[in-house]
Amino acid sequence: MEKILVVDDERNIQNILREVLTDEGYKVVTAGTGKGCIDALRKEFFNVIILDVKLPDIDGISLINSIKDISGECEIVVISGHATIEMAVEAIKRGAYDFIKKPLSLEKVRIVLRHAIELHKYKIEKENWDKQIEEKYRLVGKSRAMQKIKELIEKVAPLDSKVLITGESGVGKELIAYAIHRRSKRADAPFVKVNCAAIPTELVESELFGYEKGAFTGATDKRMGKFESANSGTILLDEIGDMDLLTQAKVLRLIETGEVLHLGSNKPVQVDVRIIASTNKNIEEEVRKGNFREDLFFRLNVFPIHVPPLRERKDDIPLLVEHFVKDVVSNSAIGTKRFTPEAIEMLSKYDFPGNVRELRNIVERLLILQEGSEVNDSIVKSIVSKSAVQKEVSLLQQPYREAKKNFEKFYIEEKLKKNDWNISKTAGELGIERTNLHRKMNQLGIKTEKK
């Protein structure tokens, strides 16, 4: 039941509004002074406040600021028998929803109140939805790699520069694209994701650029494309490395002209959209192979962000587990559970070829399978043992030379990670020359591009 607070020093107004609004199904509380209004607000929450301008102890317009400080979510409808345009404008400026002149039309009060409550519900729902979206897309991690990525996001987000996000599948490229969007001047405009790998080649053009009625068999209505849907906002071209060359040429034209051309039309449509692209492929290698246009690559690669795989930022695993547990528990009938330190330690020894996405799936599976309130290391081992959770055990099962090489690679990689891939610092810590470390890295297949 929605609650209404009526603030008016006239008893007959209080009584009439209480009677009428109670019949409408609202719970009504009344107050005759500004102090009474504040006292009522501190005791309970109200959806809408009907506020008279002339109160014995304070001007109603001035009271709006105090009301918003205590209960920013409520809507305020101001009423007055001495209304002026200036008074109404000032009330709206301060945050009132509407202004009604006395003598009151009860029908108008009902309508305004209904609309104010609908707006209030919408704001609450939107706020809850925004919180869910923000939580879903929250960047979780405290590793050096994640800190660097967050710094890059803060630098590029306020600009309109194009961004190319690279990294293996499942590392969280979409989350980074969304983080850039939310911190940009386009944050309140649409964020549209297009999975270029999931759309059949023959449909990519119509999906991206739209089409006119009759443009092809089955085109019974005009339809705008993804670029138009993202107008004023941001578009993420996910897995752009899988886009065919013909569509690449049209995307390049759009970047150069800011125009889209519907299939079946020769009239260009102007769009204002920020482009972020992502891929799990080595785009430079695809350019060399002739699978990706070099000019488009240069256009997109204005600000590159590489997301390292989870195996290279294992410091993030405990926080990610905590985040996923909270997410799964809050969105399912699974009771409250926690991972023991031993379980998290065992998960941290696994390399996660499927990266963060695989970790999330494993966490959910473990929460479902585990009886009781704690997920322990024994059930973790049963789920991921086939993937060689413990490097120590797997090394003992290998021939001497192979085990020695694998341990040496693991040891040097861990030292490099610890020193943020600083060759000189790592060589000093290992007690060897820089040239020897470079030679070892080449021998063991450790790529310096991970830096």
How do you describe this structure in short?
This protein is α/β, with parallel strands linked by helices.
Describe the 3D structure:
With 451 residues, the chain is α/β, with parallel strands linked by helices. The protein folds into four domains: 131 residues, Response regulator (Rossmann fold); 165 residues, Rossmann fold, CATH 3.40.50; 79 residues, Helicase, Ruva Protein, domain 3, CATH 1.10.8.60; 58 residues, Homeodomain-like (Arc Repressor Mutant, subunit A), CATH 1.10.10. Helix content is 50%, strand content 13%. The chain has 20 helices and 14 strands. The strands form four sheets. The chain has a five-stranded parallel beta sheet with strand order 2-1-3-4-5, with helices on both faces. Helix 2 runs parallel beside helix 3 and helix 18 packs across helix 19.
How many domains make up the 3D coordinates? 4
Work out the helix count: 20
**Major sheet: arrangement of strands:** 2-1-3-4-5
Class by alpha and beta content: alpha/beta
* Proportion of residues in helical segments: 40-55%
Alpha carbon gap, first and last residue: 58 Å
- Tell me the fraction of residues in β-strands, as a range: 5-15%
How many strand elements? 14
Roughly how many Å is the radius of gyration?
A: 30 Å
Tell me, briefly, the overall form: extended
Which consecutive residue ranges, at least 5 long each, have pLDDT under 50?
388-393
Q: Please outline the major beta sheet.
A: 5 strands, parallel
Q: What is the CATH architecture descriptor of the largest domain?
A: 3-Layer(aba) Sandwich
| Top-tier CATH class of the largest domain | Alpha Beta
Assigned CATH superfamily of the largest domain:
P-loop containing nucleotide triphosphate hydrolases
